[in-house]
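To whoever is on call:

I kicked off a structure prediction for a single chain this morning and the downstream step that reads the tokens threw a length-mismatch warning. I double-checked the sequence; it's 314 residues and nothing unusual in it as far as I can see. Pasting both halves so you can look.
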Amino acid sequence: MKVSILIKTIVFYVAITCVFLESCTKGKTNYEAERGEVVEEGVEFKEVTNFVSTRYTISIEALNGVLYRGYNDIRVRIKNTQTNTPVEVSSVTFLPIQTAVSGEKRSCPNQYNFSYKSDDKYFSGYTVFTSESGAEGSWEINVNFTVGSQNFSVIKEVLVRQQTNKNLNMTMFTGKDDEQYVIALVSPKKPSVAENKLIAGIYKLNKPLDSSSKGIADQLQFSYSQVDRYILKLDPRMPEPSMGNHSSPNNKDLIQEADGLYHGIVNYTMTGNWTLNFILLNPDGKVIRGTEVPKDFTPGVEGRKSELYLDILF
């Protein structure tokens, strides 16, 4: 009798396990199909575009040679056109300008003064393009540089593509302080089933400068600034009904480090659709945007998302 009950119990739990595994397996298969092409690591910088004059060649580089909506690491190389050798340049400024269909000009979160990397002889910075080229308008790059006592300026249109890697997603929103913010994921580009270093940039739209004393370039140069000493609270979950809104252990909220970016830990326990639920706090601990989400395990029910979130997929 006891043996019979034991066997029935074992069969019951095996059946439950099989149903759960089947659900997860189906989910994973769908995720693989949705993911499509393999996500590239994007570790090689390639030329996006260049400006060529009789004296100088200015080359703009990005990972894989493509600019995307969201965060982009960018390099600028300046060479002598005749000798193809690096030029001694004292400074480089980099300003993306979007021209809307209406003719209005705006910029985006951006490092205006690029930093010189003497070992490899290039200038380095970043840009967070807030939209792709197309219906919302076109993008151009304004590069200014100084050689000796002479200043040079070049402008060229560039193509900004839609970001297909959801691990580099971004969002724009209005906070409870009525300020406009941008959060852009920087890393990991290709997560693994493990504890991953999660890095994001957080930026705020500045109030317009006094137009009577500043030109359009000055207005756009200071259009966004990096926010300091905020905290981005993190609650990652798998919201799919088959995943039951489950989270994972050992996640860490994002705090600002010396590079100005916000660093934390996200622990992905399996592949698939994850939602990074956020609550953004200002330096005084006040909620700028975001809400807590239910922490219950709810198989068969889609998990609720925070007021502030980013969906990712790997």
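Update from on-call: the warning came from a stale cache, not from the record. Cleared it. Sanity check on the structure: The radius of gyration is 24 Å.
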